[in-house]
UniProtKB/TrEMBL annotation:
Pfam families in the record: DAGAT
Annotated InterPro entries: DAGAT
UniProt keyword Lyase, yes or no: no
TM stretches of this protein: 21-45
EC number: 2.3.1.-
Localization in the cell: Endoplasmic reticulum membrane
Methyltransferase is among the record's keywords: no
Pathway it works in: Lipid metabolism; Glycerolipid metabolism; triacylglycerol biosynthesis
Lineage: Eukaryota, Metazoa, Spiralia, Lophotrochozoa, Annelida
Alphabetical UniProt keywords: Acyltransferase, Endoplasmic reticulum, Glycerol metabolism, Lipid biosynthesis, Lipid metabolism, Membrane, Transferase, Transmembrane, Transmembrane helix
Protein name: Acyltransferase
GO molecular function: diacylglycerol O-acyltransferase activity
CDD domains referenced in this protein's UniProt entry, alphabetically: LPLAT_MGAT-like
């Protein structure tokens, strides 16, 4: 049914579909609004209520606990297994595909590509148990690495850490690779904030050419590298295109540098319509983990060694994309563009 230029959802949508919409809706609300909402509520309680002492006590805890996201985090299995994540998974659906074994006696760094507007596939696959990572890879512990700023929001940081996610800082990566034993799988999105501005349906630009920090870290600690590609990640939203040289392009990239995270202007579908809103489109996401790249430890790698491994990693990522693109409905003349 169409009215006011919108395609409205029918009233008799099955309960299962409604629950799936709720599963992804709670993630979108948390991603966009919960952090800021926690700041606003904390300030209100502190300044305008008699319960200000709660915020003062929490502030003391916050200072004491500030470095936890860089020291292994605080994983809580119950939160990773909540039923809402399964509804989130089935909304698209999202699937994690294994192509090779991972050795529990080693550590790994997984490069997740592309970033997408909200890294929807990365969060579900590695910050929850909804796609059965731990069953596919027995003895391995996934750790999703995200911007340190995500853990600066009061109260929200506690909720986010329950998923096992940690800071993507060098200190955080070194902690996992030196103090958490073996079997750690660190998942990093190398494209970061800049790549989120490139995400649109059928866009295959990856911000990777000058991203070598994770390569150097892998060599320094002898962590094997694993390329991965998430087909469908860029189809979840439609982003307002900002052509290079335009005011919008310059403004977004300037803001990204200041804030440390991307500010894409995007839309998906609505809760009760299929045309416009904040919910992602129901498009399947298939995340394929490639074959591990053996990395020899060298605590003081030369730039030449870093560049050589980076080139090999990019080649393996391109090979992974080319091998699986046809089964994901991508035309033969479409290729990755490494920028």
């Amino acid at each position: 049914m169409r009215a006011l230029g919108l395609e409205w959802a029918p009233l008799d949508v099955p309960l299962q579909r409604r629950l799936e919409s709720f599963g992804i809706l709670q993630f979108i609300i948390s991603f966009l609004f919960l952090g800021v909402g926690c700041i606003v509520i904390s300030l209100y309680v502190l300044l305008f209520t008699k319960y200000y002492w709660i915020i003062l006590l929490y502030a003391a805890w916050y200072v004491y606990d500030y470095k936890t996201p860089e020291k292994g985090g605080r994983r809580v299995s119950f939160f990773r297994k909540m039923i809402c994540w399964k509804y989130y998974r089935d909304y698209f659906p999202i699937k994690l595909v294994k192509t090779s074994e991972l050795d529990p006696s080693k550590n790994y760094i997984v490069g997740y590509h592309p970033h997408g507007v909200m890294a929807i596939g990365a969060f579900l696959n590695f910050a929850t148990d909804a796609t059965n990572f731990c069953e596919l890879f027995p003895g391995m512990k996934p750790v999703l690495l995200v911007l340190r700023g995500q853990f600066n929001f009061p109260f929200f940081r506690e909720y986010f850490m329950t998923t096992g996610s940690c800071s993507c800082s060098g200190k955080s990566m070194e902690w996992h690779l030196t103090k958490e034993g073996c079997g750690n799988v660190l998942i990093l999105v190398p494209g970061g904030a800049r790549e989120s501005l490139e995400c649109n349906p059928d866009n295959f630009n990856l911000i990777l050419k000058n991203r070598r920090g994770f390569i150097r870290m892998a060599i320094k600690h002898g962590a094997n590298l694993v390329p991965s590609f998430s087909f469908g990640e860029n189809r979840t939203f439609v982003q307002v295109k900002s052509e290079k040289g335009s005011f919008l392009h310059a403004f977004q990239h300037r803001l990204t540098k200041i804030l440390g995270f991307g500010v894409p202007i995007f839309h998906g579908r609505g809760i009760f319509n299929y045309t416009f809103g904040l919910l992602p489109y129901r498009t399947s996401i298939t995340t394929i983990l490639g074959e591990p790249i053996e990395v020899k430890m060298n605590q003081n790698p030369t730039q030449e060694e870093v560049d050589e491994l980076h080139s090999f990693y990019v080649k393996k990522l391109i090979d992974l994309f080319e091998t699986h693109k046809s089964e994901q409905g991508i035309l033969p003349d479409v290729h990755l563009n490494i920028v």
